[in-house]
Amino acid sequence: MKQERKTYGRDFLMSLAATTISIILTFGTTAIINRHTRNAEKREMVLMIMYDMSETLKTMESCNQELVSFFDLQVDMVSHPQEYEAHYLELASYIPIFDYMTTTESIFKSNIETIKTIGNIPFVEATSSFYDERALYKRSVVDEFQMQASAAIETYESLAAFNSANYPFYSQSHLLKMKGKYEQCKLMMKVTDKDLEVFSTQRQKIQEATEGSDKGDEMKANLLQMQQRNAQLQQAREEGKKALRK
């Protein structure tokens, strides 16, 4: 009887130990998987935000160069009035357009779970500051310049009176500030240029697969049509001026 009790007690303890180990392994494995999933989601969100920042800075660099090109050509045209009509369209092409997708910014700012997942307050603050600065750049530099320049290029006199000299400075000031925020975010989240390059390549492959191969041809055709319309309008202006002189 005693032997049976000992055997039963030993079997019970072994069963209890096995059950306990099984529970620990189950919950421990689940915790590890959940932690790995959270880290993967966090990394994906961070890369998505950093990619958005990187693309914004590229567009700003382009806008900045266009502002400089506009100023250089304006100076040449103002000093050579006879060149005004010949370079009118080229000058208009240097009026920058600052377009960007707000999807990532909207997800970042409107979804509290995104901020919780990232879990890095300094990164969140730097990112918010970057997006605020981007909106300010569009409003106070590009939009303002578009309005002023579009009116200024209509006549030689208005072009000569337009002061575009300060806009490259304003643009570069915003650009430097936003580059600083971008570099801070990269350091805080340990994101390298290689990481962003891989992320960018993956996004481009997905985009190309969903848009189709004819997209580039359609864009080229659309651009050609725009150029033709601009040429027609310029020709109409010249013919109208000739008619008025008669």
Describe what you observe in this structure.
The protein is mainly alpha-helical. 87% of the residues lie in helices and 0% in strands. It has two domains: 46-189; 190-220. Helix 1 runs antiparallel to helix 2, helix 1 (2-79) packs parallel to helix 5 (121-152) and helix 5 (121-152) runs antiparallel to helix 7. Residues 28-36 have low confidence and may be disordered.
**Domains (count):** 2
Biggest sheet: strands, sense, closure?
none
Number of strands: 0
Distance between the termini: 130 Å
Residue share in β-strands: under 5%
Give start-end ranges of low-pLDDT stretches: 28-36
Principal-axis shape equals elongated
Structural class: mainly alpha
| SSE series | HHHHHHHHH
Provide the helix percentage: over 70%
**Radius of gyration over C-alpha positions, nearest whole angstrom:** 30 Å
Helix count, DSSP H or I runs of 4 or more residues: 9
> Mean pLDDT score, rounded?
83
